Amino acid sequence: MSVEYLPVGIACNIKCQYCYQDPMREAGNINVARDWPKAKSQLERLGSNFAVFGGEPLLAPIEHLEEVWAWGLERFGHNGIQTNGSLITDEHIELFAKYKVQVGISIDGPADMNGVRCDIELTAKTEIAICKLCALGIYPSIICTIHRGNNDLARLCKWFDTLSSLGVRYLNLHEMEIDCGRDEFALTEERQVETYLELYEWSKATTMHVLPFADIKKLLTEENPSVMCVWNHCDPQTTAAVQGVSPDGVMSNCGRTNKDGVNWVKADTPGIERYQALYRTPQEHGGCRDCSYFAFCKGHCPGTAIDGDWRNRTVNCKLWYSLFQKMEWDNFGQLLSSDKKQAIVDRILAVHSVNSQHGDTPHGDSHGDHSDYGVRATLLEEKPEWAN
Fold first, then answer.
1. Which domains can be identified in the chain, with CATH numbers?
2. Are 229 and 340 in contact (CB under 8 A)?
3. Other residues' Cβ atoms within 10 Å of the Cβ of residue 53
4. What is the mean pLDDT of the chain?
5. H or E element in which residue 191 lies
6. Which H or E run includes 209?
């Protein structure tokens, strides 16, 4: 479970031209009213370490950030932040060090390669901040969204290698969300697959932990894979993997499915209706029926669904299928046999049987491994053709 505190709602100082939060901004649902006592009460109730999130959380007064992080360090032993990095000052860096703040920075490349997000001057400030952080041993994780603006892979990978030499250990190569018709920066489906296959080959030589490739390998090879929320049957009405705390203390969901501009209040009970439907719906109608990777992918994140309708599978289906297939060959020397896939199904059903005996539901309050296997079991009670 990831807990996020949004001290300025979704207000931001840059204009990413692919931001999934834009529908909420355009609807006026930015929500910047702050009530820290109420927000702190929610964070206390959730009882988990949290990250300061946005929009751009560094728009919050530095005095408030110090107040938040001082409490977070005392309560949980460390803190976190996800930022575009352009507003980081020496004063912020001092707070990061003092209050053990794990820093995540979103940037799509050096100079003009980050132009889809902001201008070169702001990008330069982010790059300077990364260098300063690394020099102090505060190694940020990097989220890099892949699109037409940074698709010079030779240059991009050289920049990744530079980040690695500075000490950066974690890199998330994020596929671009296509929201509200803003697809002019999106790669074609064919080029997206080619790009990620090339990036996968590059990732084999780096010491960095690179997503999504590390997660896909875990899904294919590990008994209880600990992976990102996008692989874990997210219910868009409850988003168990993301517990958002708004500035006024109101609980909110992950915003990736808020295509209508409304940041819906969390529902009381999670469900797996999306995945039951995807498992049984033909692919030509937006479902996943007969896909041999459904037990691993489960239609992926509802925030990237076809036509912005979370009931459909992800628009990036061909990308994930191609990566699973390529990494199967790399890890097993062949595509998974029917026996191998049958063993996976049998294991899932066995775990589900044990959970049922203990009264567990197949959709718990977190996205942990056992609740995930329970969901897989529910979906796979009707065995697909390759399991017969």
1. 2-211 (3.20.20.70), 256-387 (no CATH)
2. no
3. 24
4. 84
5. helix 189-203
6. strand 209-211
C-alpha to C-alpha distance for 40 and 31, rounded to whole angstroms: 17
Sheet of strand 141-146: strand arrangement: 209-211, 170-175, 141-146, 101-106, 79-83, 50-52, 2-5, 242-245, 251-252
Tokens representing 244 are 């958002």
Query: How many Cα atoms within 13 Å fall on the side-chain side of residue 157?
Result: 14
Angle, helix 317-332 to helix 189-203, in steps of 10 degrees:
30
Q: How far is Cα of residue 154 from the mean position of the Cα atoms in its chain?
A: 25
Helices 153-166 and 120-135, interaxial angle, to 10°? 30
Q: How far apart are CA 322 and CA 328, in angstroms?
A: 10
**Tokens 């190694």, residue?**
139
The CA distance from 134 to 127, in Å, is 11
Model confidence pLDDT, tens digit, residues 254-271: 877 777 777 777 777 878
pLDDT value of residue 221:
84
DSSP per position, 5-58: E-TTTT--SS--TT-TTHHHHHTT-------HHHHHHHHHHHTS-EEE-SS-GG
- How far apart (Å, rounded) are the C-alpha atoms in residues 7 and 58? 9
Q: Residue 287 in contact with residue 313, Cβ under 8 Å? A: yes
Q: Alpha-carbon distance 183 to 180, whole Å?
A: 8
Cis amide leading into 37 (omega within 30): no
CA dihedral for 269, 275, 278, 281, sign (positive or negative) = negative
List for the chain the helix, strand, coil content (%; round to 5).
Answer: 45, 10, 45
Residue-level pLDDT at 2: 84
DSSP 91-154: HHHHHHHHTTEEEEEE--SSGGGGTTTS-HHHHHHHHHHHHHHHHTT---EEEEEESGGG--HH
For 293-306, how does the pLDDT look when each residue is reduced to its tens digit (9 = 90+)?
Answer: 888 888 999 888 99
